[in-house]
Amino acid sequence: MRSLIIKIFLAYWVAAGVVIIISDFEPHRHIHNPELVDALNASLEMNGREMIALHEKNACAERASALNKSDDRMSLATADGAIVCGNRDVEDARQLVAETVKSGRRMTANNAIYQVIAMPVRSDNGVPYVLLFENRYKTALQLYGLLPGYTTICISGVVTLFLAVLVVLPIRRLRQASTRIAEGALDTRVSQGRITSKLISVFHLTDDLDGLMVDFNSMADRIQSLVVAQRMLLRDISHELRSPLARLNLALGLAREGRKESIGEHLNRIELESSRLNTLIGQILSLAYVENLDNLSPREVFSLSRMVEELLPDVSYEAEGMGRGVELLVAQDSMVKGDTVLLRQALENVVRNAIRYSPPGKMVQIELTQQESAGGAVAVLCVTDSGPGIPEDQLETVFKPFYRVGNLRHNTQDGYGIGLAIASRAMALHAGTISARNLTERPGLCVTLMLPVLESRDPAAKQRSFEYLKEASALGD
Strand pairing partners for 433? Predict the structure, then answer.
């Protein structure tokens, strides 16, 4: 992680340094204020003529002290670079004079502790000279050229280091959190740093790293919930398998030790428990199948009412055997797109639950309607029973695998709490929803399945009822 800080730090610093070094070749040559340019040129030209007059009168030595002050010094050079008046120790004087004579305009050179300004001037006779004006830096920042270029690079270095730390610290926290999650600490989450938290609280600003941490925490929540659900699923499967296996082993033991007359009873128990095991394993495999589906392919367009009508004889036959009845009401047909086998299985699971928990002699009603929503038309399948209902706080959890409500709805061993979970997953794969609500006007539960409609058929509402009832005497009427 330190290498990332160094990379960010050096990359910005080197880039800033290169730009500043390039720009510092001629940092003070251009003055953008026209008045200052005119004043500087006039002053230098006036001093140049004065220096030429001293040189021609051989009076340079007499004025040496005045021409060589502690901060500013002036010299006069001929066109070939020879200094004839004033300070003779000007660094790189010949090169600067040659460039000035060639360009015919004022030139500037920056040395370690002073700046040299070269101004071309002519005598009254037209002889070319060059005035050299040495201006020493007067502040500590100017010393050794620290102003403006190197000051900038120092400031940019500090700022870049601060920015690099702000970038790297969240990444480091993300890396530490991901390592802990990989080690099994699924409750690990990434928190905002103190500096970032203060910036967010004061300025209400967030960046991509803040969004990344939020997404990481959401991902960690999802992973934790999935792992916990998987653990609970394995625990519930083990529990559900253990009970019939224990009864099966008990029946086998009793069959070995019992008399011949009781062997048939024990064999019947073995057959019953084997059937329950087969049913449970089949439901577990169905749940595993739908849980591992990411999408449905291929899909087909079909009539929802026809699918329900084809399902009706099977569930009605099962209901008659338990002393119940099934009624179908179709207010409006709907065309949907999806997997008919999967949707049929989902609806069959819901209807079988309703049959199982309805009292003898009661009807289970399947109603198909269509309604408009914000996203378009949806088909609504309502399966209503006459059972004891479900506590309000458990209406959503009943769709979890192996979940059972601890009331009269689960007073038998026929259900394993998988059917509604399969139905919920099937509806999700079809972009639909499933929900449950208790009836208010009478005891009972209504499970509603909603699917997006591809197109409608027979737009005029029609009423069709199919009743499969046993004889009145068999129903106890």
Answer: 450
Q: Distance between CA atoms of 38 and 61, rounded to whole angstroms? A: 30
Provide the pairing of β-strand 128-136 with 72-78: antiparallel
Token look-up 């040659």 returns 98
Answer yes or no: are the C-beta atoms of 439 and 321 closer than 8 Å.
no
Output the six-digit token pair for 327: 């009624």
Per-residue pLDDT of the chain (477 residues; tens, 9 = 90+): 455 667 677 777 777 777 666 655 544 444 455 676 777 788 888 888 888 888 888 888 777 666 666 567 888 888 888 888 887 777 778 888 888 888 888 888 877 667 888 899 988 888 899 988 887 765 444 444 444 556 667 777 777 787 777 788 888 889 899 998 888 888 888 887 776 677 666 766 666 777 888 889 899 888 888 787 777 767 766 766 776 788 788 888 877 777 666 777 778 888 877 877 777 777 677 766 666 666 666 678 888 889 889 888 888 888 888 889 999 888 888 888 888 888 888 888 889 888 988 888 889 999 999 888 777 889 999 999 988 888 888 888 788 776 666 544 444 445 566 778 878 888 888 888 999 999 888 889 999 999 998 754 444 434 443 443 333 333 444
Encode burial over 97-127: b for 16+ CB neighbours within 10 A, e otherwise.
Answer: bbebbeeeebbbbbeeebbbbbbbbeeeeee
**H/E/C letters for each residue in the chain?**
CHHHHHHHHHHHHHHHHHHHHHHCCCCCCCCCCHHHHHHHHHHHHHHHHHHHHHHHCCCCCCCHHHHECCCEEEEEEECCCCEEEECCCCCCHHHHHHHHHHHCCCEEEECCCEEEEEEEEECCCCCEEEEEEEEECCCCCCHHHHHHHHHHHHHHHHHHHHHHHHHHHHHHHHHHHHHHHHCCCCCCCCCCCHHHHHHHHHHCCCCHHHHHHHHHHHHHHHHHHHHHHHHHHHHHHHHHHHHHHHHHHHHHHHHHHCCHHHHHHHHHHHHHHHHHHHHHHHHHHHHHHHHCCCCCCCCEEEEHHHHHHHHHHHHHHHHHHCCCEEEEEECCCEEEEECHHHHHHHHHHHHHHHHHHCCCCCEEEEEEEEEEECCEEEEEEEEECCCCCCCHHHCCHHHCCCCCCCCHHHCCCCCCCCHHHHHHHHHHHCCCEEEEEECCCCCCEEEEEEEECCEECCCCCCCEEEEECCCHHHHCC
Q: What is the C-alpha to C-alpha distance for residues 387 and 340, in angstroms, rounded to an integer?
A: 28
The answer to pTM > 0.70 is no
HSE of 421 in the Cβ direction (CA atoms, 13 Å)? 21
